Every structure is written in C-alpha cells, then in structure tokens.
Amino acid sequence: PNPLDARIRAAYWQLSKAPGDWVGLAKVRGLLDGAPTADVDDALRRLEREPDVDIAPETDQRRLSADDRAAAVHIAGQENHLLKVDRL
C-alpha cells in the first residue's frame, strides 16, 4: 500500500467519531503536513476504489467554505468534498 493512503486513513480516524462518519476533505488535507495536492488527489482516487471507502460531494453546496471547495477532489466528473471509511 502507498504510504500516503495510510496517512489519509489515519487522518480520517483522527477526525471521525465512528466508522462511517463523513469528514470534510479540507480537514483531512490539513492533517497531511503539506503533502502535494496532486499526490493526495491520486491517493484519494485510489482509496475510493476500496470497498470500505466512499468519497462524495456535499449535497448542500451552500454549506461549503472556500477551503472546502479548494480541497475537493475531482472524481467521475464531479467535485467531491467528503470522505467516509466504514471500518478500522
């Protein structure tokens, strides 16, 4: 596994209260010590293909801050802002 994938998972567990909680990608990226955006985007796209990971857009776009928009990852033709992992 890619070390950045593991760092993203670790950041998720630091931010979430329980498996299956949605966490904003802006907060996840904030815990990755300045990892390059393109590398994080690639890692998120890899993780999204795993059965326990979901990445989705915020349904209420009005809730998004400028940081949320900047942290979005483009997958399948849409900007995605949220990460969910279903198991430890």
Outline the structure in words:
This protein has helices at 3-15, 25-30, 37-48, 66-71, and strands at 23-24, 53-56, 73-75, 78-80, 82-85. The protein is an alpha+beta fold. Strands 1-5-2 form a 3-stranded antiparallel beta sheet. Strands 3-4 form a two-stranded antiparallel ribbon. Strand 3 (73-75) and strand 4 (78-80) form a beta hairpin. The longest helix has 13 residues, at 3-15.
List the strand order in the largest sheet: 1-5-2
C-alpha Rg (nearest Å): 12 Å
Low-confidence stretches: none
Total helices: the number is 4
**Topology order in helix (H) and strand (E) letters:** HEHHEHEEE
Mean pLDDT: 96
What global shape is seen? globular
Amino- and carboxy-terminal Cα gap: 16 Å
* Helix percent band: 40-55%
Secondary-structure content class: alpha+beta
| Major sheet description | 3 strands, antiparallel
Count of distinct strands: 5
| Fraction in beta strands | 15-25%
